Amino acid sequence: MQYRFKLLVSLAAILALGAGLPVPSRGANMTTIRIDIHDQKQVMHSFGASDCWSCQFVGEYWPLEKRKAIADLLFSMETDSKGNPKGIGLSMWRFNVGAGSAEQGDASRINSEWHRAECFLTPDGTWDWQKERGQQWFLQAAHDRGVPYLLAYAISPPVQYTLNGIAHSDAGRHTLNIKPDAMPDFASFLVDVAEHFHRKGLNLDYISPVNEPQWGWGSAKQEGSPASNADIAELSRLIAGGLEDRGLPSKVVIGEAGSLDFLTERKEEVSGDQVKAFWDSASPCYLGGVQDVAHIISGHSYFRTWPVSKQISTNERIHEVIAQTDPNLAFWQTEFCILEANPEIGGGWGRDLSMDTALYVARVIHNDVAIANATHWAWWLAISQSDYKDGLVYIDFADDYEPGKRPGNTDALKYDGKVLPSKLLWTLGNFSRFVRPGMVRVGVSYDDNRSPLDAANTLMISAYLDKKTRQLAVVLVNSENKTQAVHLADIKVQRGVFASYTTSDTSNLRKSSMRANRVSIPPRSVVTLVGHLEDK
User: Fold this and answer.
1) For residue range 320-343, what is the model confidence (pLDDT) as tens digits?
2) Structure letter (DSSP) for residue 400
């Protein structure tokens, strides 16, 4: 009997391998997951990344074929002959509208020219639409590759409108770095930018006028300005009025809180508690009645991801406060990279192309979406030249990269170099490529009643349904050093087989297939399952 059992198991394994299906080990513990397509949560909007700051050089100066290759990695929905994705299919591209620090050079008091930005409006009041040529190249590339949404964001008023004549604030300031009479000019500037690109056929669906308003922005690192909630409300009303007057389809999005707790707590007297400040009808900054302000609050996940218990409680608090204030309000997580120190991957310093950072970030994405109900999630830099955990795609000198031994002068990188996709790029693709705009997140439960904290350290699962096509996407994040065997109960897909896309140490969204009743998730990997539900 023992010989016969082993023979049957071997034959089953051979048949499964012949069908391209992974075979979990006999000893693997089976996790049973129930997906309830009738338990419908938030409607997903998009996944994105921003063009600060390397795009200004890469998009203008790099060889065309390398530019196209990077754009394909970020935006493409095409596949190779084996069905493997060529890119991660971002559905939102974030375009920085600069304030003019690049034209000021060293007088900008921003140390690195990589962190300076050009401005379309010159100090003499004329427009130069040839500025930001590199960023405009990527904006066009995103549009050409079918990216559904484009967003323009400003992090400082143009330098001619600021109080101190530069694109970042003086230390100790808590309100917008702008001349007393220049708020209407700043608003008109952003509306003019939206109108210009609309006429070019590049509609900027959203305008985000203020970034991380709780920080002082008194350092020499980059453009930036604090802002009070009153500043944001006034500026948003002015922009929205300009958009309405000109018949433009863009909408204003607000928040961009420097940390998620600023959305729900009054940590800064003039710029905290932003959910209630903007969306409680009793607030003097209430924007609910302004037609061209999108019904959205946004924030950044910085400094709230470690320990994991704090990450979870922060997300639970966001969900709770939004439900109490305005249940129809959408939450967007609009910027994240690694800043806070933690024992899993250290801090931000030290470029990491491996699964370590990828899995850390996958947990952040999952919890922001599955607990806080984020409908949009964005990474910070699409392209980075730094020795920092801030990029999806890295650029470097032609010689082999050695941390700590790079040339001090990065001028050569403005014009050419090598392209280094990270595992984080492909892991974000496990979400962005398959969780498309308009899909709805549906309920997922563990038969063992696993808590969010337990799931964060073992296996996290979220599921998304296209109600029109009945396509189901299931994203599984395995943080453990062992294969996870999963049974998806109560779900029947056509032919009983999912297409699977795996990102791990050895694969980048590699396509295969898995049986719905026995899914195998490799160690330290992210797997997306895609299948069509059987007809009712």
Assistant:
1) 999 999 999 999 999 999 999 999
2) P
Angle at 385 between CA 351 and CA 136, to 5 degrees: 135
406 pLDDT exceeds 70? no
Q: Which residues pair with 390 in a beta bridge?
A: none
Token reading at 419 = 């392209």
**Chain centre to alpha carbon of residue 184:** 30
Amino acid at position 174, single letter: H
- Is the bond into 349 cis (omega within 30 degrees of 0)? no
What is d(CA 149, CA 299) in angstroms, rounded to the nearest whole number? 18
pLDDT grade for 513, boundaries at 50, 70 and 90: very high
Whether 18-43+439-532 and 46-432 share one fold: the answer is: no
Q: What is the pLDDT of residues 229-282, one digit of tens each?
A: 999 999 999 999 999 999 999 999 999 999 999 999 877 779 999 999 999 999
Nearest to 127 by CA among 118, 114, 136, 135: 118
- Kindly provide the b/e burial profile for residues 446-470, where b requires at least 16 CB atoms within 10 angstroms of the residue's own CB: beeebebeebbebbbbbbbbbeeeb
Q: Which residues contact 315 (CB under 8 A, 6 or more apart)?
A: 260, 367, 368, 371, 372
pTM for this model (two decimals): 0.93
* Fold of the domain built from segment(s) 46-432: TIM Barrel (3.20.20)
**pLDDT digits over 57-72, tens only?**
999 999 999 999 999 9
pLDDT bin (cut points 50, 70, 90) of residue 402 is low
Query: Which tokens in the block code for residue 54?
Result: 């390397």
How high is the mean pLDDT of the chain?
A: 93
pLDDT of residue 269: 74
State CA 170 to chain mean position distance: 30
Nearest alpha carbon to residue 148 among 93, 94, 200, 198: 93
Q: What is the DSSP string of 326-383?
A: -TT-EEEEEE----S-BTTTBSSBS---SHHHHHHHHHHHHHHHHTS-EEEEEEEEEE
- Looking at domain 18-43+439-532, its CATH class is mainly beta
CA atoms within 13 A of residue 523's CA, in its CB half-sphere: 6
**Which uninterrupted H or E stretch holds 96?**
strand 92-96
Ordered DSSP codes for 11-45: HHHHHHHHTT-----TTPPEEEEEEEEEEEEEEP-
pLDDT at res. 7? 37
**Is 208 in contact with 193 (CB distance < 8 Å)?**
no
367 CB contacts (<8 Å, ≥6 apart)? 311, 312, 315, 452, 456, 460
- Name the residue ranges covered by the structural domains of the chain: 18-43+439-532, 46-432
CA 202 – CA 200 distance, rounded (Å):
6
Q: Which amino acid is at 21?
A: L
Please list the residues that pair with 462 across neighbouring strands: 475
474-503 b/e (C-beta count within 10 Å ≥ 16 → b):
bbbbbbeeebbbbbbeebebeeebbbbbbb
